[in-house]
Give the backbone structure.
Amino acid sequence: MTSAISIPAPPAEFRAAGTDLSERRRSGLSQGPLIDIAATPNAAGIEWDANGTARIGALTTIETMAIDLRLAAAYPGVAASAQELATPQIRHLATLGGNIAQRSRCWYFRNPHIDCLKKGGSDCPSRDGNHLYGVAFDLGPCVAPHPSTMAAALLAYDAEITTNQRSGLMIDEVLGDGSDGAADHALAPGEMIERIALPPPLRGERALYKRAISRSYAEWPLAEVCARAVITDGAFRFVRITAGGVAPVPLRLSASETILQDAPASAAIIAEAARQASKGANPLPMTAYKLDLLSGLVRDLLERLAA
């Protein structure tokens, strides 16, 4: 007599707006049970403390963040990133928590007929296949870049994330360091982002966001940069630069920041900081072009911040 093979049931997934989940359900990539979550007053919207700091509910829509004038004044890099994300239709529905915890956009992962690390497979087919849109900083076995624009912006602001299980988490604690090719984030089963807290705004801060994409609209970035700076007496007194689209997790461009800190906001310094943006990169055969995009984005934003 042979015994039946026990096949584990697919895990349950949270659903808010479902802008990404709906696509994965249609393709058969997502087949497990769903847990619908409602936008309660504590989970949606932007709250402000007496000292001017913001707490953003995870179910706050990207559009709400994009049009909030107070958020733009206090945290211009966060607001600018929200304004450039996707299309008006998507921004109207997509939530901040969903954007942070969304699944990979890799076409091998999205194909339900192809196995990969993120679906329990043994390898990453993109590494030896078509990885034109893959990483330029190869940090782990999966070569798909993390798709969250808002995670890169929140990294630039040292945002703290609270879930239904933990509090005080930084972005790298939520998304990992890229070494786990089987996961898009480091949240435990049943763990859900509830809110995001931003630190006190910096007086005199300027911040910009820019992405390089392969078509005019509705495209995930090939590379994207959020840059913050406080410039006084012609010098960078504070600087923070983060990048997305080039690694399995958002990155801080620490080498560029080091060049700029307390240095004159001159063309020569900015050009050197842009060159340093690719320090530590190890692109795949088809992704070296992303380093040129990254350097160009950094230079453009810094020149505009210093103008």
In short: Residues 266 and 306 are 8 Å apart (CA to CA).
